[in-house]
Amino acid sequence: MIRFEDVTKRYPDGTTAVDGLSFEVSEGELVTLVGPSGCGKTTTMMMVNRLTEPTSGRILLGGEDVAAVDPVRLRRRIGYVIQQVGLFPHRTVLDNTATVPALIGWKKARARARAAELLDLVGLDPATYGQRYPEQLSGGQRQRVGVARALAADPPVLLMDEPFGAVDPVVRVQLQDEFLRMQAAVRKTVLMVTHDIEEAVRMGDRIAVYGQGRIEQFDTPGAVLGSPATPYVASFVGADRGLKRLSVTEIEPGDLEQPPVARLDEPAGRAAAELRAQGARWAVVLDHGGELHGWVGIDDLGTDGPVGSHAHRMNAWVPVGAPLKQAFGVMLQHDAGWVAVLDGARFLGVLTPAKLHEALRRSVDADALGVPRDEVRFDSVADA
Ligand SMILES: Nc1ncnc2c1ncn2[C@@H]1O[C@H](COP(=O)(O)OP(=O)(O)OP(=O)(O)O)[C@@H](O)[C@H]1O
């Protein structure tokens, strides 16, 4: 969808901002550009919508060389969100949002209806906020209006330059989450600049890590964290990249342990005998419908009654596909040595700290070898 072919930008004063850049962003993909201040991220973006022109090389948008497209026409196909938002102070939030549809000749009522729909989409009730002026909003709300405005004419491409830069860390995470939710629905092709590796990892389908005017690595968050291509990338992503990786590595069924399972209505004596036969100390307890109820230890199980009268309720579970970090969080929250993993309501198995570590190691190796995670042979901690 967006393709850079050997693009170089030298400013008139001789500064080389971008040097021989080649990369491609697929349709519906969100690529984050991350790197230190002055490495050429903003220049890269501004060449896409022709706010500045490359010195050499080509940029293609949907196969068309942007140099051949009239800049005004081009910018209608590209939403642009910047940190300072740039809302018009004397226009209401609704009219700010409707700017581009109005410019391209939509009737006022239609443009406003679209603006209201978009304010809703970014989490601002149009009835409450539509008639306010930008100065009557918080920083985070203004940022949302900026995103709504960029989406108003339904452009296939969005350029976002530090879109969540001006707000505090808590609001920032909220805005990131909201944007990801929205992006899952609208699937724009997005280039997003950030200097924050956490944000790049959270938001990007792929990340371009910039050195001085060049991309040092262009890959998935998992690969950038797991196998930094150069010492520069390794130092940029930081020593805690194992921790960051927890947030991008998803739980797969192959990561799970299968402890014994007892049913709530099963006789306790029988469950105890099975545990003893397997040499196990505890079992996961499921209810009649196969949903997680909790757990029971072998010492809790007498011979009387059903398992249910001895079991402990525990609601520690995560859905399959959730990040490992979430599973770790749930374990800590419940002070438990395991967390159940469910597919819908169905119990798949449990993740333990050892399994979690194994999943993390396996995913690092899988990225390094370029194979799926379940093809990585691994000597677990217990085997080592
Ligand atoms: N109009 C200009 N004239 C001359 N040099 C410029 C101009 N705009 C940017 N530069 C220089 O080009 C280099 C890249 O700038 P750019 O704004 O693309 O970096 P950036 O990675 O977006 O930085 P930041 O994160 O600080 O915004 C910098 O050295 C900058 O000083």
Automatic annotation (TrEMBL):
An MF annotation (GO) of this entry: ATP hydrolysis activity
Coiled coil: none
Pfam families for this protein: ABC_tran (PF00005)
InterPro entries: AAA+_ATPase (IPR003593), ABC_transporter-like_ATP-bd (IPR003439), ABC_transporter-like_CS (IPR017871), CBS_dom_sf (IPR046342), P-loop_NTPase (IPR027417)
Top-level class of the enzyme under EC nomenclature: translocase
Keywords: ATP-binding, Nucleotide-binding, Transport
Residue ranges constituting the ABC transporter domain according to the UniProt record: 2-237
UniProt EC number: 7.6.2.9
Keyword Nucleotide-binding part of the UniProt annotation: yes
Similarity comment text for this entry: Belongs to the ABC transporter superfamily.
PANTHER family named among the record's database cross-references: OSMOPROTECTANT IMPORT ATP-BINDING PROTEIN OSMV
Record protein name field: ABC-type quaternary amine transporter
